[in-house]
Amino acid sequence: MAEFSHLNAQGHARMVDVSEKEETFRRAEARSSIIVSQKVYEKITQGEVKKGDVLSVAQVAGIMAAKKTWEIIPMCHPLPLTGVDLSFQWEIENEDYELIIDSFVKTKWNTGVEMEALTAASVCALTVYDMCKAIDRGMTIGQTYLLKKSGGKNGDFSRES
């Protein structure tokens, strides 16, 4: 089996050939967040953002982004995703209104879906920003990171809490 590397024999970039890898069930979960003002929080939760239902649009954007990750991240493989879902949860502490975005991506294929999960969560946060920037441009997109991954040659991963 060929070595899994993004460099060819000449040291130039290439897409890794995964054709000899075993097709298995793979799943990844990622998280991103965005901190908004009280005013933005109220507009979102009361459905008063002029551009529409922010969380519904962000969810569709995240799903679309997961499906197109291979088009925007160099050397990612186009994957037949079997499931993409996103969840949203508000965490309010003092004057901080943080929207936690979790993405869940699945496939049965011969390479993993970590990049698709990370892309979905990131694009959700960016979509919230885009839809609410007329209200407040001071929003802060937080860290984006992998929570869990299962399947494949390298086994499972779970971020410590």
The CATH homologous superfamily is named Molybdopterin cofactor biosynthesis C (MoaC) domain
Number of domains: 1
> What is the CATH T-level topology?
Alpha-Beta Plaits
Distance between the termini: 37 Å
The helix content, as a percent range, equals 25-40%
Specify the structural class.
Answer: alpha+beta
Give a short account of the largest sheet: 6 strands, antiparallel
Keywords:
MoaC_sf; 161 residues; Alpha-Beta Plaits; 6 strands; alpha+beta; cyclic pyranopterin monophosphate synthase activity; elongated; Cyclic pyranopterin monophosphate synthase; lyase; molybdenum cofactor biosynthesis; 31% strand
Topology:
Blueprint: E1 24-36, H1 38-45, H2 54-67, H3 69-72, E2 81-93, E3 96-109, H4 114-132, E4 140-141, E5 145-150, E6 157-158
Antiparallel strand pairs: 1-3, 1-4, 1-5, 2-3, 5-6
Helix pairs in contact: 2-4
Structural summary, described in words:
Its EC number is 4.6.1.17. Residues 15-152 form the Molybdopterin cofactor biosynthesis C (MoaC) domain. The chain has a single domain, classed as Molybdopterin cofactor biosynthesis C (MoaC) domain (Alpha-Beta Plaits). The protein is 28% helix and 31% strand. The protein has helices at residues 38-45, 54-67, 69-72, 114-132; strands spanning 24-36, 81-93, 96-109, 140-141, 145-150, 157-158. It is α+β, with helices and mostly antiparallel strands. The model has no long low-confidence stretch (mean pLDDT 91). It starts with 23 loop residues before the first strand and ends with a strand. The chain has four helices and six strands. Strands 1, 2, 3, 4, 5 and 6 form a six-stranded antiparallel beta sheet that branches.
